[in-house]
Amino acid sequence: MTNELVYTGAVELASLLRSREVSAVEVLEAHLGQIDRLNPLVNAVVTLDEEGARAAAAEADRKLMAGEPVGPLHGLPISFKDTALTAGLRTTFGHPRTKDFVPDVSDLHVQRILDAGAIRVGKTNVPEYAAGSHTFNRVFGVTRNPYDLTKSAGGSSGGAAAALASGFQPIADGSDMGGSLRNPASFCNVVGLRPTPGMVPNTDGNNVFFPLGVAGPMGRTAADAALLFSVMAGPAAADPFSHFPPSPALPIGEPEDLRGLRIAFAPTLGGRIPVERAVLDVVEAQARALTEAGAVVDLECLDLDGSDESFRTLRAAAFDSAWGDDLAADPELFNHFLAWNIREGAALTGRDIVRAEETMTRLIRGAGEFFERYDLVIAPASQVAPFDADLEYPSKIEGHPLETYLDWMRAPYLFTPLGLPALSVPAGFTPAGLPVGLQMVGARGSDARLLRLASAFEKLSPCSSVRPRVRPQGVAAL
After folding, report:
1. Active-site residue numbers?
2. Which class is 13-477 in CATH?
């Protein structure tokens, strides 16, 4: 029997904890029980610190009993993405050479979440160095989709998304360069927000000038993701670009009225991407639902010309900077498609990189003008429904051959160089019962409004309440 606490929303659960209707120990034990029961099938949580979590939960209850101040995430259990540094807890990056690495410090967003009262339970699985949108590696193996255990959970925050959908935790952190929050959210029927760069400070890598990668929140609903985002967001001196102040609209409050909303619908991003018919059927139905709700929906796409080359150039350059010397010293160190991507970066010139940045500049300026006419862009969050977990990546979409591991990820990553907030919100299911997410993209800095719009959309499409029913024989049915 499933303890209903594991599917209680984060906002409601936080309220129950503060009012002492439930204890942090009780909440933790419910989630640990769910992990014990289902994680051997899903493989979402790859490092577990039960002793540390139980001690932290007992301390959380003591603080509340003593009337001490508590944070907005007080008592909520969370396992962190296995690329995020967690002091005293193993962080493997999904790679054999760091499988026993235990950092001395935590990343800033991790520390903010813990300071807000969350209970650290463990770590969630990732692809090797978070490269790719299918979560598998040589240390822990593949993370499986709780809606169908034969399918991918997406990635690179696939362990986080699967943990949310499976009831292992009510909130999850992730990161997104080419869709690593949006793709797994789509695959696992949860919400994943890629924030505007600067909303969550970039203090954890070696390069604050790198524009593509951001950390962000996940939740089973927009309100739950917003609760976590309210803690993660805010400036930091170590990131000179983190100039956005915490939004007074967080948590998001009431959903925004959809009537009169100006929406650009880009089902194939202006003909730039192939999309599975089953995915298109879901997002087209939701575009019609938004029209019926009073929104003005136009078939339109903002300028994405050059985005593909800009993204791939800057990504490859970053990979070569991070791992080029390691690959040269040991050609067998990385999986074959990550090694290919690193070598692509080694072949670039300084001119290539500056031109990619110039293209990104043009795209950002064009997006600013576009959002003077539209409030929102909607599109598929992923070009495919969850695919077989035994594949490395899809090789074709609707008959269109795909040459690299990046090709099927264009739906989210073509928006990345534009510097816009984007999220995936549950939109429906294919006839086979596989989740499909709707990607919603807003103007730069409109993250809080985007979450309110996602919350309003959830009223039209309440599929976020559809839980997976994981079955030991390997199939999860609705």
Report:
1. 81, 156, 180
2. alpha beta
